[in-house]
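>> received
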Amino acid sequence: MHDKQAVNPKEIYFQSLIENLKNEDWEIRTAATETLSKSGDSRAVEPLIECLNDEYSYMRVLAAKALLTIGLPTLSFLNDALKNKPQEVKFKIIQILQEIGIPAIPFLIAAFKSQNDAVCAKIMTVLLTFGESAVPSLIEALKDNNANIRSFSASTLGWKDNLKAVEPLIQALSDENSEVRACRTCIG
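>> returned
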């Protein structure tokens, strides 16, 4: 007699919720999103990120709230999504990272690497809201190999008007990249 693999009803339920995120009926999608949010299961993160692009704005808001509820486990998924999603979704992801708070700072700085100027400007705005908490990471980012990260980090530091940033910004004036050197306009 062979033992059949036990069927886990919780797993079947979880998978049905994931499938319901793609249901044609927005009320079913909404109910699935709310339930997944309450579960806190990090396996729901990627499907919920896809919901940030839903045709109904209410569904997009619920998906963002669900991702916030799941919290820190979403960071690496959100970071990956910043690399390959449409700009509108990237802006929503940046807002979610802002809500997650200080643990998201390194992910936001790393996102400078592969973004257009509009997305980088949004990231700068969010980093400015973190106040002094972002300064050490931004100063460290001035040493990054990627010129875009150095440039936007320098610009963000320039807007912060922080004395700790003056010396690193002065050193950035000798950077090999002209956009990083342009931070001289940031030093008051």
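>> Residues 26-39 form the longest helix (14 residues).
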